Amino acid sequence: MSTKVQPEINTITYDRERIEDKVGSIYDAIVIMGKRAEQINAEIRSELHEKLEEFSVQNATLEEVFENREQIEISRHYEKMAKPTSIAIAEWMNDEIYFRRTDERN
Questions:
Q1: In angstroms, rounded to a whole number, what is the distance separating the alpha carbons of residues 73 and 8?
Q2: 14 assigned to some structural domain
Q3: 84-93 and 26-53 are packed helices; what angle lies between their axes, rounded to 10 degrees?
Q4: Of 27, 48, 74, 86, which has the most beta carbons under 10 Å away?
Q5: The domain containing residue 57 runs over which residues?
Q6: The overall pTM is greater than 0.90
Q7: How far apart are CA 86 and CA 8, in angstroms?
Q8: What is the pLDDT of residue 85?
Q9: Total domain count for the chain?
């Protein structure tokens, strides 16, 4: 998954009013960002599994398991990536998340 948004790696404090501006409720904003984070997580997981499948062998010997440095490097790369929640928050703050309300109850 190539993301245009560069999320924060460290913990930062966001302006609550800016987050809830788009939907009027902090809770709705959190639900929307949470759903987007789930989508991002699914994309990342799928991409990781595709890359790791290239290295899977039906009958791997012990030596093959220890020699597979490329697989370890791929795993480390994904571990260092920003978390899906951070990416979703960055997308929300940059107005890059599209959402629609399917049920308007008052």
A1: 22
A2: no
A3: 130
A4: 86
A5: 20-93
A6: no
A7: 7
A8: 93
A9: 1
